[in-house]
Design a protein that fits this description.
Radius of gyration: 42 Å
Structural class: alpha+beta
Strand content: 25-35%
Number of strands: 11
Number of helices: 2
Shape: elongated
Low-confidence stretches: 1-25
Helix content: 10-25%
Order of helices and strands: HEEEEEEEEEEEH
Mean pLDDT: 79
Distance between the termini: 173 Å
Length: about 260
């Protein structure tokens, strides 16, 4: 009885090559010689600063909000991986979450990774992950695209039985960065709208041309009729005449 030829055997017999199966992406590994971090902050202001490739291992309590901060440059794409070792004495399922915020406290979306997994009471650990978008060199204010600066990571539990609050947990976290330069926008070589009416560039302060003064007669020395000086003089003369006229009308006649 003949055995049916398998697909691989048929492909080899026909001289055809099977398509290669892509290998799974390697998990991030700590940088050689990196100093482990053993603490975490409890708010944005007290976030513990870490660098890409620097491992984090801290002990905490269920219900704590743990914060870390890391710098990001244009062209980099960061991946956050975290593992929480859970206690065995739990009463129910729990939901954990890892969130990333930029320097303006805006929450950044994740393109991959288990950002909010839920585990039952029998599971001993939970793995979380978040892959950020590539950091851009510039963006419009309304776009909320990731820009260079300081980013914050927050790890917390969002749902669990009240009886499980305060149980001890161990957290392992690592941030990896890929890319070392901005490749999203390139470089602008020429103006987008050329100036069709270009002016002259002044390198020094312009000097006013001297004005010629013509030799005039007596009329050139008279003040301008619209000046305050001439109208003040006319007003003074009229006031004096009005005073004299008023005195002449109001004085008593002399008796002989």
């Amino acid at each position: 009885m003949r055995t049916p030829m398998t697909l691989a055997g048929a492909a080899l017999a026909a001289g055809l090559a099977l398509p290669a199966v892509p290998a799974a992406a390697a998990a991030p590994t700590p940088s050689p010689g990196a100093t482990p971090v053993t603490r975490a902050g409890t708010s944005f202001l007290t976030a513990t600063g870490i660098a890409a490739g620097q491992p984090v291992r801290v002990g905490a309590s269920t219900g704590d909000h743990l914060y870390w901060s890391f710098p990001a440059s244009a062209g980099q794409r960061h991946e956050i991986t975290a593992t929480v070792s859970l206690p065995k004495t739990r009463t129910g399922a729990s939901t954990w979450t890892v969130e990333v915020f930029d320097g303006l406290r805006r929450r950044q979306s994740c393109t991959a990774g288990a950002q909010t997994p839920t585990v039952d009471a029998a599971t001993g650990s939970v793995s979380l992950g978040c892959t950020l978008r590539e950091v851009r060199s510039w963006a419009e204010p309304w776009s909320a695209d990731p820009l260079p600066g300081t980013y914050y990571v927050r790890l917390s539990v969002t749902a669990l039985p009240e009886a499980d609050l305060g149980l001890p947990v161990d957290v392992d976290l690592l941030i990896s960065a890929d890319g070392d330069g901005s490749r999203d926008d390139g470089e602008l070589k020429a103006p987008l709208v050329p100036n069709a009416k270009a002016g002259t560039v002044l390198t020094a302060e312009p000097t006013a041309a001297p004005t010629e003064q013509a030799d005039g007669g007596f009329g050139d020395r008279l003040p301008d009729l619209g000046s305050r000086w001439i109208w003040s003089t006319i007003g003074g003369v009229l006031a004096a005449m009005a005073g004299v006229a008023g005195f002449a009308l109001t004085r008593r006649p002399r008796r002989p």
